[in-house]
Design brief:
By secondary structure, the protein is of the alpha+beta class. The protein is built from 2 helices and 3 strands, in the order αβββα. The longest helix has 16 residues. The mean pLDDT is 97.
Amino acid sequence: MLDAVTLKEIEKIFAVTDALGIHREALVIPLGTATPGRVRKLPSGKIEITVDAETPLEEWLRGLPALIRQATA
């Protein structure tokens, strides 16, 4: 179980979002986790990525591109 998001996790998220061509300044990544994790578009237009607390990070990251597409469609 992941309780907090550290620079290590943020770098892994950036690897996914960089590959999608999303600028890092367009992201908001809370340092806390949630169950379930989520991705949503904020009123500011930024994309908030809240990491799932219970799913292993590597597994959750594999589904991140789809979550981003759903949130920004």
